[in-house]
Sequence to fold (1022 residues):
Amino acid sequence: MKDSSRYQYRKWIILLSVILVSVVYIIRLLFLQIIDDQWEIRAKGNALRYVCDYPPRGLIYDRNGELLVTNTISYDLMVVPRNVKLTETLIKELCHILQISEEEFMKRFDKAKAYSPYIESIFDRQITDETHGYIEERLHRLQGFYLQPRTLRKYLTSSAAHSLGYIGEVNYYEIEKNPYYKMGDYIGKIGIEKYYEEELRGTKGCQILMVDNLNREKGSFQNGMFDTAAIVGKSLWASLDKELQEYGELLMKNKRGSIVAIEPSTGEILCIVTSPSYDPALLVGRNRGKNYAILEKDSINKPLFNRALMAQYPPGSTFKLVNALIGQEEGVINKDTRFSCTMGFAYGNRVLGCHAHASPLAMVASIQTSCNAYYCRVLKAILENRKKYKSTKEAYDAWYQKIISFGFGQKFNSDLPYELKGNIPTSAYYDRYYGENRWKATTIISIAIGQGEITVTPVQLANFVAIIANRGYYYPPHLVKAIGHKDSLNTQFYTKHYVDVKPAYFDPVIEGMEKAATAGTVRSASVPGIKIGGKTGTAQNPHGKDHSILIGYAPLDNPKIAISVIVENAGFGATWAGPITSLMIEKYLKDSVSRKELEERIINTNIY
Amino acid sequence: MKKNKTHIDWTLIFLFFLLISIGWINIYSTTVESFDSFNFNTSYGRQLIWISSAILLAIFTFVINYRFFPGFATPIYFIFILLLLLVIVVGESTKGASSWFGFGSLGIQPAEFAKYATCLLLARYIANNECDLTKVKNLSVAILIIVLPLFFILLQNDTGSALPFLFLFIALYREGLFSWILIAGLTAIVLFILLVFFKEWIIAAFITFLLIWVLWLFRKKKRTYKGILLIYATIIIYIFTVDAIYTRVLKDYQRARIEVLFGKIEDSKGIDYNVIQSKIAIGSGGLLGKGFRNGTQTNLNFVPEQSTDFIFCTIGEEWGFVGSSVVVLLYAWLIIHIFLRSEQQRVPFVRIYGYCIACIFFAHFTINIGMTLGIMPVIGIPLPFISYGGSSLLAYTLMLFTFINLDAKTNLWN
Fold:
């Protein structure tokens, strides 16, 4: 028998190596199965395919039930790079069908692969009907490719582009923010489409299918436990009046500016015209990107700039109305208070000029003639009211609070697309600018007549008229009347916002506006047979000719429409904004316009 | 110790049944189409036939006279060498390797049985009282016994089946092989890995620097210079030879497999597709796995060869970390148990034979599971008792039950 004990110690080395291998393998398993979760994700990418059914997007109607936006179907060619067997024939065939070069093919393919070899990406967008049929027939040969139907928008009006907004493919940030969206999905980018995205889009239904290594379907995952059904998007009734909107855009043709009309009793925006605008159909389909770039580059007309919400103008004389109201509320004037005007308001060694009219004037007449001196004195009285306030600053702060209550200097935060605030300076601003206690009423006297630092947006002006029409309150201006078949809007749209002025104080202001329309500055805005109230404004423009502003509402006894019209570089308020206001009111209240000659003259006028 | 009494090693029998059950359940899981019908024409059906045959073979192996094994070791060995030669000439080929004998729908792989024959003959040769592995003559014969079948299997283009033979050197080590041979072997492997990454002359230059440093260290003992220079020369010759083989003899796909393993090249043309799919399947198993028949990766054919070489993926995916760790531990138990049991043997033949088969199991365990975990190159060899396949199952049953037989009757030896 041979001696084996000499090398017996070596068994330990051998046993140790077995143990070592086992331990290494278990640690490796620990890392693969528990610590690193990429394998689980990749397993899903391998074996699960999400077949999503995109429900039609909700339709958009106008306030009278006229269809504004509907859908058309289009197909994207999707690719899952890992499932593609790149053969010469496949590349040739697809290049032929899609009319692209082989380099372009490889470029797109590599891009998709770089995004993810396991997740689908778009290979070709919105392919034509003809190509679609062609691909459908050959799909079985194009392993790794499939057609994804998409809903595209179709516009039945060429107006209201800014309010309706548009949809576009989700970008990286939107996917990050909301995992509902997958690469290639569409999302509302701006306007109603964006604000009401969730209601309009509905919910896509996803069926989770298992596929094998050859991408063959092998039934549903876990018996369809995680499948969801598609929910159709809700239809939506915009507050816009299609005819009025189109008419407004027609009138504003070849002019810059905006028209905003609001129904005072609800805050619903009847029309919101910004000019120059663009045809919403431009931002649909394969040419969307190209067209968008063209619109964006147009730095002269800025068609993408929504003037109704983002242009900030000095309100000019329209602002006198708010000072008349606040003056009464502060108790420094009443409707019978008279101030004299000798071609203007003199303070220190300066004069703020006025035009020729009778003097002294009471409040109604001051509105009718738009007297500058009157309102300088009103502001002076408000700010120098030492019975109530210890300092100019304190009085100014009280004035400021009241102005803010009219919706000036802030956003409405309703369903409007990007709005700007306008500017109502705070006392802190004047303190910084002039120094504390270094400013008084006469220092900032120009705000009395809506000049100086003060700026407002057209929608704020329209809302201001609505407040006057309502004698003291407003609903936040909004673009949508109803969603689905119920009034299921955000409750903030039904909340009355009261201004800090008592209803009784509106009477003389309204009387003044009425007189202005019948026998004053606003005569050009009058409509035969309809009682309206209005006020002109001329916004000083340091860059050129002044902007023409007119605000008004009608009918006087039962206000149905409150409107603000701004025509840039058109000079005095009554000249161009007046007739446009008049035609808009006639169109809305009477459905047709009898003064064809005036209409034609406005349409054919170019003002730049 | 009582004489003339048999001690059956129930632990090994228990492990045998446990492993074949685990194997069959996982084969069933990946290949069954519906629970309603049982079909013998499917993988799981055929595997059931193989398992039945294996049990019959186990009983037969256990009852025959223990003297048969050492007695017939030589003829058995040469019969299989002959079969290996024959298979090169008339065998059926799969995936470029001609290593099968086809009998109707069944295939027999002589390479698996050749391992058994090699273990028997190697044990018999070394057990001889005159054999001393420190002697060049005896060592050469022992190595020849291992290398002969290995060589023929390489000729069949079946690198995978050849590799486990190298693990028999562990058994030789236990029986007195010089340690430096193992050290040299490990050094050779390290140098080889370095060669994959660096140019041969860079490594040669590095080794030369090392030489100068060592020579300086030993400057007081000049008589060691001869040995040091000899080692240096060997290493340099090795580097350039291996480099020549690597770049000229190895085929592109073989080189690619090696380079993918070491991460030198990324997935080119899907060479590491198998490995990635395998890792995905195992990695997605989580702690407790997806459950029986719920493995998406294995059931939907993402993992290639999932019932044979990549069966561990199914275990990993469906039974998770817990299940796969248990399987790893079961193998460790089996191998260590055989090593320890062998160590207790009075009879050298039984001891050495036990060591040999434990080495073979160890080789398959290390290479197969290492491959599915992506830390070994993709070498297609089965996981003993678990993988689908008749030849391997029968061969391992033969190996194991021969040991159980010898071990049980160890007291009958004189």
